[in-house]
Amino acid sequence: MTISTSAPPQRLTVIAPRADTQLADFARDVAAGLSRSTKQLPCYYFYDLEGSLLFEEICALPEYYLTRAEAEILRRRAGEVGARLAAGTTLVELGSGSAAKTRILIEALLSRQGTLRYVPVDISRTMLEETSLTLLEHYPALQITAIAGEYADGLRQLQAMSGNPKLVLWLGSNVGNFERPDAAAFLRSARDTMTLQDRLLVGVDLRKDRSVLEPAYDDSRGITARFNLNILARVNRELGGNFDLTAFRHRAVYNEEIGRIEMYLVSTRPQRVAIDRLGLEVPFAAGESIHTENSYKYSIAEIDALAESAGLETEARWFDAGYRFSVNLFVPHT
Ligand code: AVJ
Known about the structure:
With 334 residues, the chain is an alpha/beta fold. The protein has helices at residues 19-35, 49-59, 65-83, 102-113, 125-138, 151-160, 180-191, 210-216, 223-239, 300-310; strands spanning 2-6, 12-16, 90-94, 116-122, 142-148, 166-170, 199-205, 248-255, 260-267, 271-275, 280-284, 289-296, 312-319, 325-332. The strands form three sheets. A nine-stranded mixed beta sheet has the order 1-2-5-4-3-6-7-14-13, with helices on both faces. It has a three-stranded antiparallel beta sheet with strand order 8-9-12. A two-stranded antiparallel ribbon has the order 10-11. The longest helix has 19 residues, at 65-83. It is globular, with a radius of gyration of 20 Å. The mean pLDDT is 96. N,N,N-trimethyl-histidine binds next to helix 9 and strand 12.
């Protein structure tokens, strides 16, 4: 970890890992994922700057209801959330991205306490820095400690922050990328950093009909397809890959039994793809796929079970008017 302070003076601290460590991790995970009999790539590699910007475009798509539904809830409930917090609460966010919806909570907390420390954690360092600078410009009473890294780095930061009260945000149904038991384990480790005055606010997408879900992950403008394919473009850019992006197609399917959207990149023909910097040649049969993402959906009972196994108590749960999405306010179980 290197620590650097940059402008505006005193108000922004960025904590980032070394770039070469990140590239080594990417190389290792791509080599492992593409050498398996069922090929897969971890979905957090979607989010280089290109991918983060494509994700912002997804959030504005008519089919991608999640972002608007969550923003609707936050606008309506930010005051209630603020009222439950101790004075001088620090706002921590896991997977902050553009922090567009976060502004609703930032404003609610600023109007209550006058000043605010915001600790965004995001895998894309460029996105993190741009977002931080924009927020600082917009909110003079804000102070930011930005953490470029994975959720685990965020949890380590939470551990180090014990003492001052905090609200931890995990929005956008980011929880959906975890296998259900892993989501419970992760929330438990977040809970273990919290005291009774701390709160955890988690956005969770709900199970619903595939006629709504599948277009949300396979939009008519093809933005989600570009987002998915960007992971191959990233392998080309960073690892000397030779993927022909026109020889793979985007596939999103709702697995109703499991309750998850599955995303794949499907090879449209037999091919061998060399990845120069890995010294690897990856064979694909026609129709063979790379599994790139799972996005789990939850029933109310499943959210209750998740909270229960994480040692959390549900203090409040809110829905959008269309009942598509939930925002859950959790407190450590006593
Ligand atoms: C950022 C993980 C919540 O699963 O809905 C959007 C990512 N993938 N479209 C989601 C995503 C395809 C998104 N999360």
